[in-house]
Design goal:
Length: 304
């Protein structure tokens, strides 16, 4: 569906009679996001709304800063109507002093989710002045460089393909940049970021009985690849599929530790720094997870 051409003077809304009360008073949250808003659209819309509330700007003030009418801004903030163009989205991003680079990538992903054609996306982006080189916070850049490999390994354990894993990790890092101040204000940046990654991965992972489906991981173990006899390999895969299904049913933190250390091959000593927990807590989680699994599948198997 083609987005209708917008007419009228920017900042003027014919639906608002003179003297009408502004629909968004200072400090008041915008109306709720529409229920039919897609997951990718919601990913960038929620932090934009949070930033607006934190800024203390009224909708009238946002009109003045962005150059768009209250009706159109209200629709954007609720996710109502057509998927918003990059022009109006960027005007809000600029008014709220948000980093445009990660938000443009998130906006693009959501445009694809909304079935916008590549030509439409490119035209909308080209209608806005070039953003220039990316300038992420130095601490954010260092963090992403350190965490990209383990984050991708974890994501791929659930999403199977490297491409899907990289998209989940990229979205996590963009969202983290977009909310970097919030991350710095959290009790632990690593823990904050890990929970963000986990939510991105679980939103994409196949589900089985309310848990992520890890059974496909049985086809990618080094042990099964080394078995030459087809019947023996099939039996091994079947056993490991049941085992990974049990892993997926562990409490989330226990599951994370097991997946990182024993499926992704990450050194146990490095796991605490990835998930943002103390070494003692990580050791306890690993101990409890092993205990929960041992009665089912580990009596006759080693972890190695």
């Amino acid at each position: 569906m083609t987005e209708p051409e917008q007419t009228g003077v920017p900042g003027q809304d014919d639906s608002d009679p003179p003297g009408a009360e502004a629909p968004c008073r200072r400090g008041r949250r915008p109306e709720p996001i529409a229920e039919d808003v897609g997951a990718a659209h919601r990913t960038w819309l929620e932090p934009v709304r949070s930033r607006l509330v934190a800024s203390g700007l009224t909708l009238d003030e946002l009109v003045g800063l962005s150059g768009y009418s209250k009706t159109r801004l209200s629709e954007l903030l609720r996710g109502k109507g057509y998927y918003p163009s990059w022009e109006i989205t960027y005007s809000v991003v600029k008014a709220l002093d948000l980093p445009p680079w990660p938000l443009r990538r998130l906006w693009t992903a959501a445009a694809r989710e909304a079935a916008k054609k590549q030509g439409w996306i490119e035209n909308r982006i080209q209608a806005v002045q070039p953003l220039g080189p990316e300038q992420p916070p130095v601490a954010h850049l260092a963090f992403t460089q350190a965490m990209r490999e383990p984050y991708t390994a974890y994501a791929q354990a659930f999403l199977q393909t490297e491409d899907r894993a990289q998209r989940a990790v990229g979205e996590t890092f963009d969202l983290l940049w977009l909310t970097w101040d919030e991350a710095l204000a959290s009790a632990d940046v690593k823990r904050h970021a890990w929970q963000m990654l986990r939510s991105r991965v679980m939103a994409r992972a196949l589900q089985r009985d309310g848990h992520p489906d890890l059974r496909q991981a049985a086809f990618y173990t080094a042990a099964q690849a080394a078995i030459t006899d087809l019947a023996e390999r099939t039996a091994h895969i079947d056993t490991m599929a049941h085992f990974f299904d049990a892993v997926a049913r562990l409490p989330q933190d226990q599951m994370d530790v097991i997946v990182l250390a024993h499926l992704c091959g990450i050194r146990p000593a490095a796991v605490p720094g990835i998930v943002g927990l103390s070494p003692a807590m990580t050791h306890t989680l690993d101990h409890h997870a092993r205990g929960a699994l041992s009665d089912l599948y580990l009596r006759d198997h080693t972890w190695e």
